[in-house]
Amino acid sequence: MTHLIKNPEEIATIRRAGVILGEILYKLRASVVEGKSPIDIEYHAIELFKEYGVEPGFKGYQGFPNICCISVNDNVVHGIPNDTLMKNGDLVTIDCGVLIDGLNTDAAISVIVGGDDKATKKIQELNRITK
What average pLDDT does range 92-104 have in this prediction? Predict the structure, then answer.
């Protein structure tokens, strides 16, 4: 599928993959808690990808070893999940891709560990401004 203009079936597949990816990212938010690590999020992602019956878009791409890129604080993008424990106030970004029928979707979310309403509103405002 090297053509740039997608046909209606491909668009429907991409839409379905995007909806699934959104659901997976929403569920992964629950893993962003103090005392857990990025690798814990990765393990949760592995289970969710199995549950939804989809392939990861990132794993194996140019040798990338994981399903998710998980960045904490100043690790800006494409972080490889590790076992460093997260603390309250850490900014965690989870970036994943879902691959269906050779078509890939890609999305990311940012979450503050232990984020109260004020912290969550700051992330939402940052996301709105930087879109």
Answer: 94
Mapping DSSP onto H, E and C, the string for 19-76 reads HHHHHHHHHHHHHCCCCCCHHHHHHHHHHHHHHHCCEECCCCHHHCCCCEEEEECCCC
What tokens appear for 90 in the block? 């850490």
Question: Per residue in 41-70, pLDDT tens?
Answer: 999 999 999 999 999 999 988 889 999 999
Report the predicted TM-score, pTM, of the whole model to 2 decimal places: 0.85
Distance between CA 28 and CA 45 in Å, rounded? 7
Instruction: Report, in angstroms and rounded to the nearest whole number, the Rg of the chain calculated over CA atoms.
Output: 15
Structure-token match 């078509």, residue found: 103
Alpha-carbon gap, residue 68 to 58, rounded angstroms: 7
